[in-house]
Sequence to fold (245 residues):
Amino acid sequence: MDKNNNAVELRNVEMHFNMNKEKLYSLKEYFIKFMKRELRFERFIALQDISFDIKKGDVFGILGLNGSGKSTTLKLISGILSPTKGQIKTYGTIAPLIELGAGFDMDLTARENIYLNGSVLGYSKRYMDERFDDIVEFSEMQDFLDTPMKNYSSGMVARVGFAIATMTTPDILIVDEILSVGDFHFQQKCEERINKMIDGGTTVIIVSHSIDQIERLCKNCVWLENGKIKMIGDAKEVCDAYKKS
Fold:
């Protein structure tokens, strides 16, 4: 255990992207300009000098308008992206619920995708056999198990993705807007499962456009604006300031 009892540490983190300055209408056009070294890029700074800690067992929210850097921060913490500058440390296993169903083969059935996704996550077939019924029961996809997932709605895909991603209890759970996917009944089930993880000591990091959701679930949060920290601290205090802005 680290001496500071932190689950996540960000130190002077920055994330820069090179944005193409001109419109290209085909891969062929892009390739020609690339070979001629005629591609022009503009640097976009998505995050600038971000530093904060998240304590173990905390429920931490990230607020901000579209383009403020919320999802980029989650992808950096989860390891999907590497920072341009600065350092990120995490302690324990991470389950990122960022793009539910992103690893699915939509031509396969839900049954096949459950095993495929489990294999990608490093679980054995025996392990997935033991948890298969629980995954199906939570997702409520019993009647559609052998239907290709390309015929699923986004909400149905999210049900299966969430059920797989939360079949074990991670040390750190990262949630990006997934509680807004699906019907009200499913959203309640998601919150109940997340609350059980919280009660079990899991550190939870949440991005949501719902201020009420952040206030209800989170202990602390950070408010990002144009890639910089605007405010950080008690969730209710930060949310009150955000609503007045």
User: Anything to note?
Assistant: Helices lie at 27-35, 70-78, 110-120, 125-139, 154-165, 184-199, 211-217, 235-244.
